[in-house]
Design a protein that fits this description.
This protein is mainly beta. 8% of the residues lie in helices and 42% in strands. Strand 6 and strand 7 (87-96) form a beta hairpin.
């Protein structure tokens, strides 16, 4: 908002200027909590805020003339800043003039000279009185004490200043009166009226009776600012009816307290030709107009002079770039900030005038922000869409200010806005389903696998911890088999694993961040236990006590190839570790029997001799593991005549039992598991390669 108050310059300190709380529409008790503070744009502190009453108070006595000089208006600009939410209000205080200064002439006495042959109507310029007050309190008129020879004429200059002149209305006679003494009084328009006086002494001279005359006496020239030095401004048109030295005119600047000599640094005057040229750079923003007084003096005796008044008004050109002022910036801003959230307060100003000083602000359209005009030359930067720190952790915002001049001038200011993170992303595993392998009988504490999760948030919102969930698939809690490092996600064994008991585990792993509220994700890892050769073969048939031998009879006339018996063995391991081979241990003498390596069948290798003694065979069953494990059985084969033995009975094979069926089932499951693991591994490798 923008507030406007007015206060007379003679008001005492502590006086109330305006009711801020009422005009701003806020409660008085909220001013302190919202940290209301006052900022003077000029750097001087003339006001203060009474937070208890919500009133703007005068802090020191104001002097309008000291603050604004001869400016027709005098305004002090303040800024009120309130927080929660952040708001900026502009306060403009007009300082009203009071008639506290009396008119005063630069000199208490003015001495003029006039020739006795001066014609009625001759004008004698007088000193202009000074009155720091403005408006109706400034100089209103002049009065001249009664005289039969002189009257007072008042001209108004281009800037509104009234210039007194004495006009000769009756011819002079020096022999009668050589000196005329009058009193000039300056009156202001205040109430009550104040005045100032100056003594005017007029010496009547003989000789040169025609003064130089400027045509026109008051003129105006328009000139663009920043013209090159040496540019001709004007050439004065002055005539003198006298001849010879009395008509030879010299020009010089006339300087008075009301017409400061600052223009002499910017303009030069040729004393012979009356040409006025620039001798320094002209800046419209420093001064938009200059009042130049020129004295035209002839060389007569006594010399006579005329006065020319020239007003040079500058035409503004677009020579100043806009200026961007970042009043306030709220950084960082939460990524979940709602659209319309105020991010920054931005002010802009341009020293040029008119269209050259009209400024508009721009930012890039692809940014999720927009500019909203608060009031004149002040803008708010607000969010215009959703923010996502994971896509953009910050923005370099470039604000561009362009004026409406021709050609246009622009400036830009860049500032960085950081986006603060909120916990809006759950952690994610790189692979939601994974496989791992561990050798059975590994020592407790063996590293099995590591899971890796990531969280695009930052800080505590991205700090991850891992844990194992109980899925209820095993009879015993999964935590009795495995544990996980909560910091790095590495899973270790808690105890040795037995392939023959558990071949595969499903380990559900949960990862959780440290945000508020915490977010989590889960992944399932299939841990396959790899078999090792830790079980020796077991001989199922023939079943004999340890240290005993199995006795088998065969016909004495058995032919080569005759099936004597068959050794049946199993191995609780799987794969290569369960592949069995059968062989006879070497003896000192050759035996007429041999054993099939894979089937375990024992057959007659050569014809038996009559009345041959029983043969003792040691059959060794060995698996294919590393290292290889084995078992053995002792057979005693006795040839008997007329022995015809049914093979099935001779084998005396036991009927298949549920235990044997289970062993076969275990072998089948082992083969299927190995095949499945191989397929999964090939699939994982192929996926990673792709």
């Amino acid at each position: 908002a923008q507030l406007r108050y007015s206060v007379p310059e003679d008001r005492e300190p502590g006086s109330a200027v305006g009711d801020l709380a009422k005009d701003l529409g806020v409660e008085v008790r909220s001013l302190a909590t919202r940290n209301l503070r006052l900022v003077s744009e000029g750097g001087q502190r003339h006001f203060q805020v009474d937070l208890a009453a919500g009133v703007l108070l005068l802090d020191s006595r104001l002097d309008r003339e000291a603050l604004c000089g001869q400016s027709p208006t005098c305004s002090l600009h303040l800024q009120l800043v309130m927080e929660n939410p952040l708001q900026l209000h502009r306060v403009e205080v007009d300082v009203l003039d009071v008639n506290d200064n009396a008119p005063q002439f630069p000199k208490p006495e003015v001495v003029l000279e006039i020739t006795e042959v001066a014609n009625p109507g001759t004008r004698l310029p007088l000193e202009v009185a000074e009155d720091p007050d403005m408006g109706s309190n400034s100089i209103s008129t002049y009065e001249l004490s009664p005289s039969e020879h002189f009257t007072l004429s008042i001209n108004v200059r281009g800037d509104g200043v009234k210039m007194p002149e004495m006009v000769l209305q009756k011819a002079l006679d020096r022999e009668k009166v050589a000196v005329h003494r009058l009193t000039l009084t300056a009156l202001d328009g205040g109430n009550p009226v104040k005045s100032g006086t100056a003594k005017v002494t007029i010496h009547v001279l003989d000789a040169n009776d025609n003064p130089p005359v400027c045509d026109p006496p008051i003129s105006k020239v328009y000139l663009e600012e920043n013209v090159p030095v040496g540019t001709l401004v004007t050439k004065l048109n002055v005539t003198d009816l006298d001849e010879g030295p009395n008509g030879d005119v010299e020009y010089s600047f006339k300087i008075s307290n009301n017409s400061p000599g600052k223009f002499t640094k910017l303009f030069s005057l040729d004393p012979r030709t009356g040409e006025i040229r620039t001798k320094g750079p002209l800046d419209y923003e420093e001064s938009s107009a200059y009042e130049i007084a020129v004295r035209a003096r002839d060389k007569g005796s006594p010399a006579m002079e005329g006065h020319c008044h020239l007003r040079v008004e500058l035409i503004d050109i677009n020579d100043n770039s806009p200026e961007i002022v970042l009043t306030s910036l709220s950084s960082p801003v939460q990524e979940d900030a709602t659209p319309g959230t105020v991010i920054a307060l931005i002010g802009v100003k341009d020293s040029d005038s008119g269209d050259n000083g009209q400024v508009r602000l721009q930012i890039a359209k692809e940014l999720p922000f927009k500019l909203v005009s608060s009031f004149k030359e002040h803008f708010s930067l607000v969010t215009n869409g959703p923010l996502d720190r994971e896509k953009a952790s910050g923005y370099n915002i470039t604000v561009r200010a362009v004026d409406s001049g021709s050609p246009q001038r622009a400036t830009q200011k860049t500032f960085y806005l950081r986006i603060a993170d909120v916990n809006d992303n759950a952690p994610n595993f790189s692979i939601p389903f994974d496989t791992a392998h561990v050798q059975e009988n590994s020592l407790p504490g063996t590293s099995v696998f590591s899971v890796l999760a990531s969280d695009p948030d930052e800080g505590s919102n991205a700090k991850l911890s891992y844990s194992i969930l109980h899925n209820g698939m095993q009879d015993v809690p999964i935590s009795t088999y495995f544990r996980i490092d909560q910091d790095n996600g590495t899973v270790y064994t808690v105890r040795a694993l037995d392939y023959e008991q558990d071949k595969v585990f499903q380990v559900p792993v949960e990862v959780k961040d440290a945000g508020s509220p915490a977010l989590s994700s889960t992944a399932v890892v299939h841990v396959f236990v790899l078999d090792e050769n830790d079980n020796a073969p077991t001989i199922v048939y023939p079943s004999v006590p340890k240290g005993s031998a199995f006795h088998q009879t065969i016909p004495a006339l058995a032919e080569p190839g005759y099936l004597v018996t068959k050794i049946v063995a199993v191995d609780a391991d799987s794969g290569h570790n369960a592949w069995l081979s059968y062989q006879l241990q070497e003896t000192a003498e050759a035996l007429p029997f041999h054993v099939e390596r894979r089937s375990g069948e024992i057959r007659v290798a050569q014809a038996l001799r009559d009345s041959e003694d029983p043969h003792r065979l040691v059959v060794e069953v060995r698996d294919n593991g590393t290292p290889s494990l084995s078992a053995s059985v002792v057979l005693v084969i006795s040839p008997e005549e007329n022995s015809v033995q049914d093979f099935a009975k001779s084998l005396d094979l036991p009927k298949s039992s549920p235990k044997d069926t289970n062993l076969t089932l275990y072998l089948i499951i082992s083969l299927v598991s190995i095949s499945l693991v191989s397929c999964v591994m090939f699939g994982v490798v192929a996926a990673r390669c792709l």
